[in-house]
Give the backbone structure.
Amino acid sequence: DNILSIDASNNRVGIGTASPSNALEVANGDLLVEKSDAGGSIDIKASNSNNTNSSSNARLIASVGGASSGDPKMGVAVTGVRDYFFRIDNSDSDKLILDTNGSDILTIDTSGNVGIGGSPVSLSANFTNLTLNGAKGGAIIFEDDGTSQHAIHTTDDNSIRFLYGSSLDAE
C-alpha cells in the first residue's frame, strides 16, 4: 500500500497513490480538513493569473460562527465581487438561509415556510407560507415559456393588484 508519495519533478503529492495526477491527490479515502478555532473557516481558492483583475478569484468556503453559536455555512465567492452562502442559523430556530454579500435573500424555516427578501411570516400552523419582502412590496409572476402572463403584487399603498397579459408591461 502506498501511504504517501512525492513526485518532486512534477510538484505533486499523493496519498494512497504512487502516481498522483494533481498537485494533491487523495485516493481511496476521505479527506478531512479541520480548523477548530471559534469562527474558523476553510477557504479553497482557484486563481487565474491571466485575469484582468488579479484579486478576483473563485473561492469555495466552509466556516462556522463564534464559539457558542455554531451557525455553519458553505459558500462560493468571487473575491471582492460577490459571494453566496447557505447557512444554518442556530441562533434563530435553525433556519436555512441563502445570503449574498451578507444580505439574506432566501429563508426557509423548519416548518417549510419560505421568505424571499426576509424571514417567512407564519400566518397559521395549518399553512405553509411564502413571504415576499421587497422595498416596495412583493410580486408573484406566472410565466409561460419565459413570457410573463399574469401577476399578483402588492403596492406602496398596501393594496393588491392582479395583472393580466400586456398590462404587466405597464408596471
Q: What stands out?
A: Residues 144 and 150 are 9 Å apart (CA to CA). The longest strand covers residues 82-89.
